[in-house]
């Protein structure tokens, strides 16, 4: 179609002016939301690192105090061996998280002594098994010696489920002349966390953070500074000396992340809504412009068609009038033939002019209708009888099927007559080889109807949706070859609406069309 090129340009311009900036803005906003997430992630990471460092340092301080105490007990053993066992038991009693203490000779890699807590019912550990375990981990002791030479007191965490289910810490003793060179403390990490680390965690949280300790192996929470708090843990990291446990952090109540998330959701919804509004607006503008362009094209076609419609009868009238005026008709029969043609073309011209005038009045709202009760069967039959001679003289086979009902309807006789005549004229105009027209009346669902059916060229499904639009005419096939104003069916639709009725169409290309007007029935 001619209108496609300007429409394509308009669509491209609208896209560049409206949608493209919106897409850029949306992309920018979404990237900003991602940056906010990264900032929040960084905040929690830094905060967790600070808390984890503090807790880990506190854990090391506890181990330093244990190591110092055990060193002192071993030193005193050199002068008073009788008190050694008693003091070891006192150490175990004071530190309820400690279950066993193993002293080993690092040079021979043998476990020399094992002390067990008296407060718990713990299984005995065989020195032979303990020595085997120690030798399997002697590489850790060598690593500790390397640190020791550099002046650092280090601790190695050992996890060996085959030897014991508890956690273990290995460290070196500060004894130069004793055979005891290293110590393994076997402790219950759950008790250690709850009894020793809990006060520290409470202090670090400062009533601002929720700190939670997790048992990674068993996938459960060991401790939390807040009870019954379902706040999502934002960050989680492992302890230095408790590798099977991790610590998590989040803000109390509504977290920064949740605030950012809710804000992000709002912004995303706002962006989507804005884009939808812009898209709807764009579509509305595009459709409006398309409709205006199509209307302009249709009006142009209308002027062309009307010009042709007016030119043809005027040319015929002028030609035959001139022939008669110059007395070129040689017989009376020819004169009668020319008079008949002039009369027919004058009537045709009058119909065209009346149709345009009626449409103009409808557009201006100046037509007044006068409704009265009519017998539809008799009314339609009168119109059919008037037109049947014209139809037959043009080679049509026609029939009228009168409905078996006595229902009446309220109508404007002149307007309804014009609607029916327009449908009959269309049937004549768009009939092809099979010239058959049927006019029918009937009663359906308490509505009376008038049907005009033909065996003409038919109308496609797409065009059926538009044929009642003003100035619309089918732009392809044989229909386009038949000239017209494109106002006939528009007038019919308007008249039907004024009568509070409906009009339907059933049509198949190449097989004909059936138009049916439904009007309210008066019993």
Describe this structure in words.
By secondary structure, this protein is of the alpha+beta class. The chain has helices at 4-77, 84-94, 127-136, 138-149, 189-205, 256-325, 332-364, 376-393, 413-429, 461-464, 478-481, 488-498, and strands at residues 98-105, 110-116, 156-158, 167-172, 182-187, 209-215, 220-224, 235-238, 245-251, 372-374, 397-401, 409-411, 436-444, 447-454, 502-508, 512-520. α6 (256-325) packs antiparallel against α7.
What's this model, at a glance?
The protein has 523 residues and is an alpha+beta fold. Among the domains are: 131 residues, Beta-Lactamase (2-Layer Sandwich), CATH 3.30.450; 153 residues, 2-Layer Sandwich (Heat Shock Protein 90), CATH 3.30.565.10. It is built from twelve helices and 16 strands.
Termini Cα gap: 50 Å
- Gross CATH architecture of the domain at 368-520: 2-Layer Sandwich
How many alpha or pi helices? 12
Could you give a short account of the major beta sheet? 5 strands, antiparallel
Task: Give helix and strand order, one letter per element, not per position.
Answer: HHEEHHEEEHEEEEHHEHEEHEEHHHEE
Structural class: alpha+beta
What's the pLDDT, averaged over the residues?
Answer: 79
What is the H level of CATH, i.e. the homologous superfamily of the domain at 368-520?
Answer: Histidine kinase-like ATPase, C-terminal domain
What proportion of the residues is helical, as a percent range? 40-55%
Question: Spatial order of the strands in the main sheet?
Answer: 2-1-5-4-3
- At CATH level 3, the topology of the domain at 368-520 is Heat Shock Protein 90
| Fraction of residues in β-strands | 15-25%
Please report the first level of CATH classification, the CATH class of the domain at 368-520. Answer: Alpha Beta
* Anisotropy-based shape: rod-shaped
Radius of gyration: 51 Å
Uncertain spans, ≥5 residues at pLDDT below 50? 476-481
Number of distinct beta strands: 16
